[in-house]
Each structure stands twice: as structure tokens, then as C-alpha cells.
Design goal:
It comes from Tagetes erecta (African marigold). Pathway: Amino-acid degradation; L-valine degradation. Its EC number is 3.1.2.4. The chain is built from 17 helices and 11 strands. By secondary structure, the chain is α/β, with parallel strands linked by helices. It has helices at about 5-15, 75-85, 110-120, 120-140, 155-160, 190-195, 200-210, 215-220, 235-240, 250-255, 275-280, 285-300, 300-315, 315-330, 335-350, 355-365, 385-390; strands at about 40-45, 50-55, 55-60, 95-100, 105, 145-150, 155, 165-170, 175, 215, 225-230. The strands form 2 sheets. It has a 7-stranded mixed sheet with strand order 1-2-3-4-6-8-11, sandwiched between helices. Strands 5-7-9-10 form a 4-stranded mixed sheet.
């Protein structure tokens, strides 16, 4: 059996190439995707969102495997329409979401956004973020149980459409990360809410470094509600399909039946709570880096040096923005976080403060030289005014993200 440390290293290698997959443009339809060629699957236009009708539930399949199921505007609109209709349907008790291929969802299609920026289509970018963030809030306030099966890559917006829901099932194939600082962006899609509520300062660590957690680690820190081996996923899906209920405790019992007990490896960041909290509890990115350098010098800990390399690769502006975003998220609700992140995302795509998003996507996804020329080039060149502007509306006339007032009853 594969050891956890080996699984973790494989997940890191796996995730290092996930962003590059967005460029591939192979078209997969329902008829040529054998893993989804079930007669009960109904495709939307372009087959990017599939729906499986069960007796008392609906299963959504994100179906852009060549793009690791990355979300675009049309998918967001389709998902909103489906979820709203199901929420009002008394014959539907709960909803399941999963992905096709080797990913659950690698997030928003950032190359799609890059292309809109290149064409000057800022309105299209606004619609993209507005549509997806609104859907994420819908998941977070959904009045029926929601189960996300995270059997594969789950990053950025993939976390945004799953973590706010009732149940998240991670597996031994799950790779979770919020790697936005590596492309000159900020952890969005509600990340400032769910990362800020993790134990200690793990959220700051994940937001700044873009490090990857596996399924066991997700369950250990609370990002996942259940952990199961991939071999159990078909049985989980069959169990859910046969449920006739809208009771979350009944869904919970089904999931618990296939839960596997496992523990993070000794090399896991979950095992480094003391060092992580000591270094990432500081008020500024500069102080965090100083603490890591001091710790590395005192202990000769290679982990600290690895973390420093990640921080020194990332966009300096993104690091400062991400740290502030997580810290603010601790004192905000999900809707407040999404409204703030919407402002931040528009600032990033317009590029008035910095063109780091455009440059980061170029360096990592398009030209793949992995040598971004960040602007500002270093932390010392990032001013407080730049960071403050990142959190401000584009203009006094720019509308904020408008989310409905609705709260889901907490499931305990």
C-alpha cells in the first residue's frame, strides 16, 4: 500500500502541472466520454455541466476534463439556474457535485480571464466573477444538504463551490491548494473565509505559499468533513443515489459508512503546528519571512527553506494582499468575504495598481518560462497605498457584488 508521504510527494508533482492543463483545448462530449456515457445523464449546451437524475436527489458533474473542470461564466450561470430550481422543488432532497476525469475542479478558468483582459473585455471579467461568486454564496446558504465528492484536484474556485456546502468528501486522490499568489492574484472564491477559520495560522500559510494538502490533511484540519479511499467512491455514489431523504443526518450516516481512518504523515505541515504558528502569526509578510529565516538558521530545518523559496517566487503585492485578506476574513461572514474579494478581483483584472495577474498567467501558463517580472518587484516596493487600493471599489459608481440575504441552518 502506498505510504502517506509518498502520496503527498505525488500530489505535489501532480499539482505542479495542473495550471498548464487549462491551455489544452481538446473537446470532450457526452458520447466520447466513456466514463460518463450513462443514459441518465442529461447534458447542457456544450456538455460542460451534466446532470444525473436520481430518485430523491440530483448529481451535478463538472465536465471539462481537458481543462481539469475549470469553471467559466456559462457554467456558473447554468449551475445557478439548476440549483435554484432544485431548491424550490419539494421532490428533490439533496444535491451531489463531482468532477469528471482526474479533477474535481481546478478553479476558475484563469486563461479564459487572461484572454478577456488581453482583449480589453473588462465587463466580461466582471460577469465571470459576479456569476461564480454568486453561485458560491448560493452553495453556502443552500437550504438542502449538499455533498461534494473531491476525488481529484480541488483548487481555487473548486474549493469555492464545495467547501461552503454541507459535506465535503476527500479521497487519497485529492489535491487541495489556493495557489493564486503564484500567478499574481489573491486567494478568492471565498478562500479568505474558509482559510481564515482553519486552526492556528494554517490559513495564512496556505494562502501565501499555495502549498498542497492531500485528502487526509484536508480532513484533519476541517476542510473536508469525510475522508475515504478512491475505491469506495462508487459505493458512496450508489448509496447516495438510493437515499430518499432531505435529512442531513441520513446523508451523514451514508457517508460515515464509507469513511476511512488515516492520519497525516510525519512530513505533513499538519504536524508542524508549533513552527507554523510561530512564523505565520506575525503582522507583516516581511516579519513572517524573517521568522522563517531565523528558524531555518537555528534548526537547520529544510522545510523552512522550502517555504521561503515559495514566498520569494510569489508576487510581492499578492503576498501582502493575501495576508491582509485572510486576517480580515477572520472577522467577516462568507457574504462579506465574497463582496470584498469581488472588489479585489476587479482591481486585479483592471491592472491599475499592477499587471501582476496578466504577467503571472503569462509566465506560468502560457509562455511557461516560470520567470515572472513582478511589479512591484519586491516587498519593499509595495506601498500601503497599493494594498489599500486593492481593497477599494474601482470607482464610486462601481456596484458591489449583490448577494441575497439568506442563511442556511447550521448542521451539527
Amino acid at each position: 500500500m502506498q505510504t502517506l508521504s509518498r502520496r503527498r510527494s505525488e500530489l505535489h508533482r501532480f499539482s505542479s502541472t495542473f495550471l498548464n492543463q487549462f491551455k489544452r483545448t481538446t473537446t470532450h462530449t457526452l458520447t466520447n466520454n466513456s466514463s460518463l456515457s450513462d443514459h441518465s445523464l442529461i447534458a447542457d449546451d456544450k456538455s460542460s455541466v451534466l446532470v444525473e437524475r436520481n430518485a430523491c436527489s440530483r448529481t451535478v458533474v463538472l465536465n471539462r476534463p481537458s481543462f481539469l473542470n475549470a469553471l467559466n461564466t456559462s457554467m456558473g450561470r447554468r449551475l445557478q439556474k439548476l440549483y435554484k430550481s432544485w431548491e424550490e422543488n419539494p421532490d428533490i432532497g439533496f444535491v451531489v457535485m463531482k468532477g469528471s476525469g482526474r479533477a474535481f475542479c481546478a478553479g476558475g478558468d484563469i486563461v479564459y480571464v487572461h484572454d478577456m483582459i488581453r482583449k480589453g473585455n473588462i465587463e466580461g471579467c466582471k460577469e465571470f466573477f459576479w456569476t461564480l461568486y454568486t453561485f458560491m454564496y448560493l452553495v453556502g446558504t443552500y437550504l438542502k444538504p449538499h455533498v461534494a465528492i473531491l476525488n481529484g484536484i480541488t483548487m481555487g474556485g473548486g474549493a469555492g463551490v464545495s467547501i461552503p456546502g454541507t459535506f465535503r468528501v476527500a479521497t487519497d486522490k485529492t489535491a487541495f491548494a489556493t495557489p493564486e499568489t503564484l500567478i499574481g492574484f489573491h486567494p478568492d472564491a471565498g478562500a479568505s473565509f474558509h482559510l481564515s477559520h482553519l486552526p492556528g495560522y494554517l490559513g495564512e500559510y496556505l494562502a501565501l505559499t499555495g502549498d498542497v494538502l492531500n485528502g487526509v490533511e484536508m480532513a484533519a484540519c476541517g476542510l473536508a468533513t469525510h475522508y475515504s479511499l478512491t475505491t469506495n467512491v462508487p459505493a458512496i455514489e450508489d448509496c447516495l443515489k438510493n437515499l430518499i431523504t432531505d435529512d442531513p443526518s441520513v446523508v451523514e450516516t451514508c457517508l460515515q459508512k464509507y469513511t476511512d481512518l488515516d492520519f497525516p504523515s510525519n512530513a505533513s505541515v499538519i504536524r508542524r503546528t508549533e513552527t507554523l504558528n510561530k512564523c505565520f502569526s506575525h503582522d507583516t509578510v516581511e516579519e513572517i519571512i524573517d521568522a522563517l529565516e531565523s528558524e531555518a538558521e537555528k534548526t537547520n530545518d529544510g522545510w523552512c527553506n522550502d517555504v521561503l523559496k515559495k514566498l520569494k517566487y510569489a508576487s510581492p503585492l499578492s503576498l501582502k494582499v493575501a495576508l491582509r485578506s485572510i486576517r480580515e476574513g477572520r472577522f467577516q461572514t462568507l457574504d462579506q468575504c465574497l463582496i470584498r474579494e469581488y472588489r479585489m478581483s476587479l482591481q486585479a483584472v483592471v491592472g491599475h495598481i499592477s499587471g501582476d495577474l496578466y504577467e503571472g498567467v503569462r509566465a506560468r501558463l502560457l509562455d511557461k518560462d516560470f520567470a515572472p517580472k513582478w511589479d512591484p518587484p519586491s516587498l519593499e516596493h509595495v506601498t500601503q497605498d497599493m494594498v489599500d487600493q486593492y481593497f477599494s471599489p474601482l470607482s464610486s459608481l462601481e456596484p458591489d457584488l449583490d448577494l441575497p440575504t439568506k442563511q442556511r441552518e447550521a448542521f451539527t
